[in-house]
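Example 9 (inverse folding). The structure is encoded as follows.
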């Protein structure tokens, strides 16, 4: 069983998609061993607890500086002994020490077709605001392994989603979630849990 820890910041709809997929058996060989949020009062923690998954918050507000927060976050992840760390709407920069220790074992979902609309400052609704400002006709979502550079790690999977006339950032965000994110992220976990995807020399290798 792949021990999976999910890191979240907000509403947790991607977390819910993972919980539901494990419960439905479309993600197999996977045990959700913990959920960590950087935020104390988020819906994600409730979602985890209702599914019987241990859930805790590690908030930067409780630490004197960033280094101490980073250490506490890494210690909490270590405690759960994950095989895979999933960033499901975790809107905090990952401590470099975590990237190093869990190299090839952290994945992230991003709400655009990387390399468009990604990197520093592109997170959550902002991504969709920028996509609409630019007037793109197609956007989507990307699941990728996490490396030190923000949104720069090897791509596991992408799914395009059409922009429609009159879209607001909120409407587009919801469509990208429904048509791409909630499908791609559980699928990537299942692929990793069942040995269909791994990372080798910085490249994603897919078993035939
Ligand atoms: C999702 O759209 C996710 O792709 C995005 O935040 C949202 C979280 O929603 N992540 C990023 O922008 C990471 N750069 P959720 O809490 O409902 O899953």
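The amino acid assigned to each position is listed next.
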């Amino acid at each position: 069983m792949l021990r999976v820890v999910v890191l979240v910041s907000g509403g947790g709809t991607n977390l819910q998609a993972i919980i539901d997929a494990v419960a439905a058996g479309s993600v197999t060989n996977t045990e959700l061993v913990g959920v960590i949020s950087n935020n104390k009062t988020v819906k994600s923690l409730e979602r985890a607890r209702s599914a019987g998954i241990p859930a805790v918050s590690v908030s930067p507000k409780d630490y004197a500086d960033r280094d101490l927060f980073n250490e506490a976050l890494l210690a909490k992840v270590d405690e759960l002994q994950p095989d895979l760390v999933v960033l499901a709407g975790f809107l905090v920069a990952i401590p470099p020490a975590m990237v190093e220790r869990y190299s090839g074992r952290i994945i992230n979902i991003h709400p655009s077709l990387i390399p468009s609309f990604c990197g520093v400052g592109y997170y959550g609704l902002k991504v969709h605001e920028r996509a609409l400002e630019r007037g793109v006709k197609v956007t989507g979502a990307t699941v990728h392994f996490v490396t030190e550079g923000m949104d720069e790690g090897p791509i596991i999977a992408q799914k395009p989603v059409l922009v429609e006339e009159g879209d607001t950032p909120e409407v587009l965000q919801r469509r990208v979630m429904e048509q791409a994110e909630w499908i791609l992220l559980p699928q990537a976990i299942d692929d990793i849990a069942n040995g269909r995807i791994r990372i080798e020399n910085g490249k994603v290798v897919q078993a035939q």
